[in-house]
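Self-study notes.
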Amino acid sequence: MRIIPAIDIIDGKCVRLTKGDYNTKKIYNENPLEIAQQFEDSGIEHLHVVDLDGAKAKHIVNYKVLEQIATKTNLKIDFGGGLKSNEDLNIAFNSGANQITGGSIAVKDATLFETWITKFGAEKIILGADFYPDTVGGKIATNGWQEESTLELIPFIKDYLKKGIQYVICTDISKDGMLQGPSFETYKKVIDQGIVITDDADITRSIKLIASGGISAFDELPKLVELGCEGVIIGKAIYENKISLKQLEHFILNTK
């Protein structure tokens, strides 16, 4: 299972929110590059960067931060937040993103999102499935979690699996930033049901699920491995010293 620390960006600074509420912003470092370099020094190879300004503005904003991290580290970066057009996507990839995450766009302009999968390949495009657990079926959230769609989590994911998506970041909004543990039950349901067989080519494809939201302690990581998660995004637990970089370094070394 890949360990993927998160760096969320507002005004070029590394911040964290609680349940996606911009009013709960807490600044952890004025220079995201310093944080990224610390991650790399601990043996971490992957990074999740979210342009929170972009999510609110509905177009990419903090691409200079992405470019700085990409050029001054060897981290493989997946970048999301506000990617709504071909121009946004080109800027993200040209600025050094290894993958991009599309959430709102996958709901509001499915045709465009599908062209991205075709053009760039499923290895480059991650589906962002952020959901409200207290709604029937877990409704998908959009626009920086400010809006609720009518789409339900599992059908949403399965539909995109049929369209070629492999990677899915699944975030339980109620747990994000709460340090109360991840949504184990939901991840199990998604993994158990997220298999598609294409009759024409007789291909079985299973989801590569990246767990996100609520990670609070190191002992949760083996449980996510057991469930079959391909990756896990860890944010506040690192910044609040609930999980140390040394623990993550040992985990990475022991699972290679």
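Second protein, same conventions, sequence then structure:
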Amino acid sequence: MIMYKTLGISDEVVKLVEEAEKDCREEFLKIDNNGYINSLKVLSSFHKNEITESHFNSTTGYGYNDLGRDGIEKVFSDVLGAESALVRSQLISGSHALNVCFFALLRPGDLLLSISGKPYDTLDEVIGIVDNPSSLKSFGVKYDQIDLVDDDFNYGAIEEYLKTHKVKVIEIQRSKGYSTRKSISIEKVEKVISLIKKIDSNIIVMVDNCYCEMVGTKEPTEVGADVMVGSLIKNLGGGIAPNGAYIVGRHDLIELCAERLTLPGEGAEVGPTLGINKQLLQGIFMAPSVVSSALKTAVLTSRVLEKLGYDVEPKYQDERVDIVQNIIFRDPEKLIRFTRGIQQGSPIDSNAVVEAWDMPGYTDKVIMASGSFTQGSSIELSCDGPVRPPYIAYMQGSLTYDYGKLGLMKAIELLLNK
């Protein structure tokens, strides 16, 4: 097709991708079915909470009596199976929301335990793994971790640890982050929460659910998690939310988080929406469809790169837990070329040549392609990774499958033809 030529995509790459696409049809049907179930959940919540045009109205200043903000938080609570929600543009990222949670729920002398290994790099200074005078460690909060074993929780070690230590909060990070492990399924989350609660029902289980929302039809708060956190420039923002994050869970815990975000005594009652309500409502409304597009793009990417001889995780027929697709290049130049190709296949700043740089919050240089309408959006087509062995590209997103497929073609073109 002549239009492929205008994008600089060769017949060879078109043929490769279209052949791989045929292999993915069964997986695409499964994804569409999950998306339909999640659409039912969202629409039912809009009806239950009687969302009207008045919910699009905005507040400024202190943000008292914001009808739209309250409606949004009811919708998020329903869709995610939680008692309460805090959905705010004042939460600038998923990492910020996790930080708010930690400081809201933990006190000096308390013990925080991660049972999914070391959390994402951006939390190193929050926890105190890397020294920072504002860390939890500097406030006397203790930290420990139990690593996964064969991509599953170490149930025996967790049980033994909880019998000999007084743990206040357990943190679970479902998505792999910049690690080589697999992401954690909802079935495994449910199993380990059941174990924890049998040993000590007072332990607060907090789940970092970034990249995982609506990939399946159940969320951690529907299987026993006390608190769950995620970003709105990932799955639940649907590519429409311009920023923000959410915290959902038990009502008493969400109140503590709200008072940490704002101030004691006011909590969730303040926080102006500044015209964002319509975008947040549209975002979660579109989220099932957009997540499905991101998943299809990931499945296709997995199949294409596997056909080219690269190790991929997950493989195209594997169960999906999040929207992230790993490609293990074992070569820094191939990682860089593929990432630059994703940038070239993006709608914004397609002419930019991305370089690895010292990104705030990370210990290694990171190369990142994100030619997105919202800066740093991971639900739009993006690709990033630390430039360190084994040189893994972490690709995620795409607002539509068609754009994801085209972006992948550009990346393959650059990978094959320097």
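Instructor comment on the second fold: The radius of gyration is 21 Å.
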